[in-house]
Amino acid sequence: MKLAVFGATGGTGKEIVKQALAAGHEVTVLVRDPARLTIKHDKLYLVIGNVLNADKVEETLAGSDAVCCSLGSTPNNPDMAVSDGTRNIIDCMTKQGIRRLVVVTAMGVGDSLEQVTLTFKMLMKTVLRKAYEDKERQEQLVRKSDLDWVIVRPGGLTNGPATGDYQFGLDPAIGSGQVSRADVAAFVLQQLTDDTFLHKTPVIT
Q1: What is the model's pTM?
Q2: CB neighbour list of residue 171: distance below 8 Å, 6 or more residues apart
Q3: Which of 11, 52, 132, 162 could form a disulfide with 182 if both were Cys (CB 3.0 to 4.6 A apart)?
């Protein structure tokens, strides 16, 4: 499979790229600073640019079979950069006829709000407010699209190894907890070919 990955220099994005290459996929990534992606592979292709530039997004997507989006907020990005970048991805996918989109957001977004702790809800209203407003808008854009999308909402992310031992699904009784970025990446890659959660928003924790 030829896969396009956005957010490849983030912790989860790097794991998605690493595991996709290990599985034999051909991967194209859009990065602002190639030095931040230390992975080297003969099936890894870099496009230098910003997700807010639609031309660069289109270049990254060219010939892809599916897309993984793991964009995150960074201090040097404008407000709503994640959702604006996702809008570019959706528009360019539609233009090129690419159907499958797997997006990583977070527990606490949308109807998973009641699954996070009271303390975290307070953080969402204060220091994380802008980031979560961006993620809410991002999910709304994905949901409104005509693409074959899956939105994955992880709990607290760690840098631990892939374990395969995690909870996931749509049950609102699943509480927030920690999960390794490696396990999230494995779950994201499963969604590329599995329709169990098509047009749904599973949590993983």
Answers
A1: 0.95
A2: none
A3: 162
